[in-house]
Write a structure and sequence with these properties.
190 residues; alpha+beta; six-stranded antiparallel beta sheet; four-stranded antiparallel beta sheet
Length: 190
């Protein structure tokens, strides 16, 4: 169990690092979090032990969990997600699925996916927030990528990247399963 000084120093270091990574001034973060600029200065200089309520407001304004503010590790964390702990967020009876393999929050949400699309199936998505980008690699088969009503063929081994602030979809118009690895990068909260 870390001591209070270590926790206070961790909150200071993480708050300042995350604020700067998002290019927020002290005034911007104070306004977003509903706390005073003076309180943020005290937090970033490790001169106060903020209340849980204040930590929640600051974490929410930064778009992170309280755990990230409290993380007292001074080395980069490595988080390993075993294959059996990945989460299928959509699937069909024919066997198509989208599986979230992992993600991170800094500087904005970044997600790593593994998808399988059975012949004749696909998955469509509504537009994401402006600034969202997707990167897809076709591991097996031939993917039909739909972007704003236009179809693109992406063969095995090829990679496609695009801004996904428009309607888009991933489809298998062939006769064999398609496997893709997908990365989605969402800009930090403004």
């Amino acid at each position: 169990m870390p001591d209070l000084e270590l926790v206070t120093q961790s909150i200071a270091r993480n708050t300042k690092r995350l604020r700067q990574a998002r290019d927020f001034s002290l005034d911007m973060l104070a306004a977003r979090a509903g706390v005073s600029r003076g309180m943020l200065i005290q937090i970033e200089q490790a001169r106060t032990n903020p209340s849980i309520g204040t930590l929640v407001r600051v974490a929410d304004a930064l778009g992170v969990s309280i755990a990230q503010l409290l993380d007292y590790s001074d080395t980069p964390a490595v988080r390993i997600t075993p294959a059996e702990e990945s989460v299928a967020l959509w699937s069909t009876e024919a066997g198509s699925e989208g599986r979230l393999l992992g993600g991170t929050e800094a500087p904005g949400p970044l997600e790593l996916w593994s998808w399988r699309l059975m012949p004749g199936e696909g998955h469509d998505s509504e537009p994401h927030p402006p600034g969202t980008a997707e990167l897809v690699r076709v591991d097996e088969g031939e993917l039909t990528l739909l972007l704003d009503g236009r179809a693109y063929t992406v063969p095995t081994g090829a990679t496609a990247h695009f801004e996904s602030h428009v309607a888009h979809g991933y489809h298998n118009r062939g006769g064999t399963p398609v496997r893709i690895t997908l990365v989605v990068s969402v800009p930090p909260a403004q």
